[in-house]
Specification:
2 copies of one chain form a homodimer. The first copy, chain A, folds into 2 domains: 5-129 and 301-313, ATPase, nucleotide binding domain (Nucleotidyltransferase, domain 5); 139-295, 2-Layer Sandwich (Nucleotidyltransferase, domain 5). Helices cover 34% and strands 24% of the residues of chain A. Chain A has helices spanning 55-70, 106-114, 123-134, 199-210, 216-224, 228-252, 268-280, 302-313; strands at residues 5-12, 16-25, 37-47, 74-82, 85-86, 93-95, 102-104, 118-122, 142-148, 152-158, 161-163, 256-260, 292-295. In chain A, the strands form 3 sheets. Chain A has a 5-stranded mixed sheet with strand order 3-2-1-4-8, sandwiched between helices. In chain A, a hairpin with a 3-residue loop joins strand 9 and strand 10 (152-158). In chain A, helix 3 (123-134) crosses helix 8 (302-313), helix 4 (199-210) runs antiparallel to helix 6 (228-252) and helix 5 (216-224) crosses helix 6. The longest helix of chain A is centred in the last third of the chain and has 25 residues, at 228-252.
């Protein structure tokens, strides 16, 4: 791309639309997969239209966010990051719990609306691509991303790419069963990992312990201030993070496990219990390596940055 | 390779050494990854030396098996399939519960002993490669092999290759935790999948139900004859097969799941309960595909055939 172009990544999340305009530096697109430092030159946010609003309103909000982020600069392309199941071809959004689209040909639709090449990918896959290109998964042969937010998301990384799976569904770690006949999950199953390891799980653990509702950032603030109950609640989430990750490590043998998502902002209060549980839950650690469990580089903007990188690299 | 050469695959198992001499047909090595029909032209078996025997005896038994399998034909190369952890480079056997080697540079050692190119790989990975080239995973983009034998083994298949993982340990499904604080496993952990889904688990379920020890083939014969207890015991193993597979499917989204290993010889008595449990344990099956769960093509000779194919293709 010419240096006076930007690629815009748009993360269409549950509560807002975040657009970032990206200009790469530290390398050339198409010449090196990783080790490029993306330069965010502008960001724009728009509120999500209400759940009952027609999809046209959501489309319009996305177009406005893209226009605001690009400003006067030429647009090289757009990447869309969506919290839902995207097909393996990157053409359709098949399903998203918090978005109005069902089996929607979003890539093509936004190419028509924006008159520019559009790439479409799942938000955790976008976040993983950002970590591969410029974050905690730079230069690794294989890795996993586990995002601990409201629920659990994730991605499988291999050979500098995000693995999509046969139907676009690889990395859906949140609904792996970790407790037979365990806690009921919104998905209709029981004992799903995200019932034990997520922001919602953290709130539940605190509520059970002290009888009061505190949200995740409140628990995090208390834990940082040394509150024992808050620390133990986060440690419980971290232990389940390690236990579940151990199963994935047995299956994939990744070089590194990257932990992202809102809950991971508490850092080692979460990661240290997770590291202990991971090591304790792996078979044969006398003769096999325990992969490093590291924090993601990118925070809430990971999906948008990854989507912009997908657009820049013509992937997705 | 010239048509008057064979490649010999040797499976070094817990109880015997099996060597097969392979001549490919239906395609040319190096030109098509899959869709070649391997032709087994000779087999040879040798008993395993006792556990306390020096490794020299085991080496000698392997050399004799190779010599017997190749007969008078020129030897193009040898593949070694071992029931243990092989490093990612295919050079060392790091650990094997039932073999005397530890951190042993087996590939090089046998190249010296045999004066021919040698490839070394884990037995489940060899079996998966046989399924990729000429079996149930032919032509697929991604898949999983789960072998239900004495324990559980497995492999991850992607793009016509077996995924080794960062340290050679990908596909070690047997010790994924499926029950927190569950049954104690020989590996030192609790609740490992193979405690609920394996030949040993089948024997335990029957022993608990009827108070008698029956081995796997006896249970299988009773089940085929319509015995209710035997059928329910196999169904219990099959249900756990489906539950554990569901977690792997959420993580990988494979096109197909291939079930091999000795217990899988009972066929649909195992696979039908597994298919039901798989479908029941996956989130969002209204909008995502449940992968086919299919029997492996190759039985007890899978490891040896896959090792010969690795040698033929220069992989491993």
């Amino acid at each position: 791309m010419s240096s006076d172009e930007v690629h815009v990544g748009v993360d269409v999340g549950g509560s807002k639309i975040l657009a970032v305009a990206l200009r790469p530096s530290g390398g050339n697109a198409g010449t090196a997969v990783t080790d490029r430092e993306p330069e965010v030159v502008a960001t724009a946010t728009r509120p999500m239209p209400g759940r009952e609003a027609p999809t046209g309103e959501l489309e319009a909000a996305i177009l406005v966010a893209v226009a605001e982020a690009r400003g006067e600069t030429a647009l090289g392309g757009v990447g869309l990051s969506v919290a839902g199941l995207v097909d393996a071809a990157g053409e359709h959004l098949r399903f998203a719990a918090h978005l109005p689209w069902r089996a929607a040909p979003l890539r093509r639709r936004f190419e028509e609306l924006l008159a520019t090449p559009v790439r479409l990918a799942n938000d955790a896959n976008c976040a993983a691509y950002a970590e591969i290109v410029a974050g905690a998964a730079r230069g690794i042969s294989s890795g996993l991303l586990v995002t601990v937010g409201t629920g659990i998301g994730g991605a499988v990384m291999m050979g500098g790419q995000v693995v999509r799976g046969a139907h676009g569904g690889a990395g859906e770690f949140g609904h792996m069963q970790v407790v037979p006949d365990g806690l009921a999950c919104e998905c209709g199953l029981r004992g799903c990992w995200e019932q034990y390891c997520s922001g919602r799980a953290l709130e539940r653990v605190v509520r059970v312990a002290v009888g009061t509702h505190l949200d995740g950032p409140e628990v995090a603030a208390l834990a940082r201030a040394g509150d024992t109950v808050a620390r133990e609640a986060i440690a419980s989430i971290g232990t389940w993070l390690g236990v579940g990750t151990a199963g994935l490590v047995s299956a994939f043998d990744p070089e590194v496990v990257v932990i992202g998502g809102g809950v991971s902002a508490v850092g080692d209060l979460l990661l240290e219990p997770a590291r202990r549980a991971l090591a304790d839950s792996l078979q044969g650690t006398d003769y096999r390596e325990v992969p490093a469990l590291v924090p993601a580089r990118f925070g809430p903007e990971a999906g948008a940055i990854g989507a912009a990188l997908y657009s820049l690299d013509g992937i997705g």
